[in-house]
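retry 2 of 3: previous attempt timed out while embedding pyridoxal-5'-phosphate. Reduced batch size to 1 and resubmitted. Inputs unchanged:
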Amino acid sequence: LDLIAAVEPDVAGAIRAELADQRSSLKLIASENYASPAVLLTMGNWLSDKYAEGTIGHRFYAGCQNIDTVEQLAADHAKALFGAPHAYVQPHSGIDANLVAFWAILAQRVESPALAQAGAKHVNDLSDDDWQSLRKALGDQRALGMSLDAGGHLTHGFRPNISGKMFHQSSYGTDPETGLLDYDDVAAKAREFKPLVLIAGYSAYPRRINFARMREIADEVGATLMVDMAHFAGLVAGKVFAGDFDPVPHAHVTTTTTHKSLRGPRGGLVLCQPEYADSVDRGCPMVLGGPLGNVMAAKAVALAEARQPMFQQYAQNVASNAVALADGLMRRGARLVTGGTDNHLALIDVSTFGLTGRQAESALLDSGIVTNRNAIPRDPNGAWYTSGVRIGTPALTSRGFGPTEFDRVAELIVDVLSATTPTAAASGGASKAKYTIGDGVADKTHAAAAEL
Ligand code: PLP
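retry 2 succeeded.
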């Protein structure tokens, strides 16, 4: 840090402050974690200085032997950890991994047949007319994914994301009574919509998904099953999600981030069945530039960590701690979407405390508890203010918290939410953002959070 401070002291200050914040507060953001020192150190070194566009052993730059080594290691660890036939570890993030996967599916399902029909080997060999009709065919495809308010992700075909411009999108939601995924409803929607890609995966659905059933649905309508396991990859790696609930053997293409429950560096990767491998490997230069050698190396280290028996114990603890946290909240009167959890996250409906998600998120932050507001199914407050707060156990489980500590965390959350009241907006009407916390509660909770 002294080296950094000598050049730009404010950056060194921000790094120190981040460490202090992370140590004195309770990190409950379901998509965050604490990467190990080995992973963090692997990201800050000379591998970062090398250009290596291309694939292992087939680069557009000279001198890539060490990048080849780390990329191969990361891919091998990923294949062994997840039992996948093929792994592509270059994506810089989850959004990139999904983009690589979408293009690979389009290339495999639409572009290759079009090239074969035109008797061409490469798009550059197509006549202008054939190229225009291929572009139209590529832009005319459909994707079916989980709706945002049920817990789906923006990259699953929604308008603000490029995937929403690539595909005509339709969504499946959850059962209004139970909040659970209704597979018969997904099947009915798939039959009607006939998607090229059926997407399964989520960022805020607190339950596991039966991927064997999703594959049956995909097969029935001739869709490619793409699973985005970004949130729960750690539970798959740690064998908490096995059999029908392990996406990798059932999906044609599986994408993930590496920094959430998997506890690696910020980044993404794609796993796939052999028939998609060539198209997936064309992620660079199709949608990616030069890979980040330092981050691929850190992925190799994190994936090697996840292959150790200790990681299975960690993943089991993430799941059992989520149950302890959810039970602790519900015992104290909180309402959870779906009435609990069987993964690493829970979604609190804070409207029962008379609050919006925005007010609850801010009041918790003031009290040293870091969460994020999140829409709940059919949310009357929309995606900005929301009625929910999402919480997860991966980060605090990495710090060694067990069920007892998580029960205390549940108590602190309910104390803060119960002591928080909405305040009127400046104009006098109800505000969805302003709030007050009862005397001393924020300070007391902050102190308790720092002590934990
Ligand atoms: N997919 C899912 C399910 C996610 O939850 C996220 C991130 O929140 C992403 C993709 C995007 O990951 P990234 O932020 O690394 O682009």
